[in-house]
């Protein structure tokens, strides 16, 4: 899909996510909702080594 933003054009290829045929649904505070769970668990980006003001830490 070709998009244009502030005079700059670029191509966008959306990611296709597999879902299951099961449908979860319910009511929360009077509003009806539906959800189709992912077929495969989403992968995180792993652990990140980060630094804030000279302090090193690991973030999930």
UniProtKB/TrEMBL annotation:
InterPro entries: DUF4278
Superkingdom, natural source: Bacteria
Protein name in UniProt: DUF4278 domain-containing protein
Source organism of the structure: Crocosphaera subtropica (strain ATCC 51142 / BH68)
């Amino acid at each position: 899909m070709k998009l244009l933003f502030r005079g700059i054009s670029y191509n966008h290829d959306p990611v296709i996510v597999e879902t299951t045929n099961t449908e979860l649904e319910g009511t929360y505070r009077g509003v009806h909702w539906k959800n189709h769970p992912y077929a495969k668990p989403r992968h995180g980006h792993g652990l990140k080594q980060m630094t804030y003001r000279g302090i090193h830490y690991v973030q999930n």
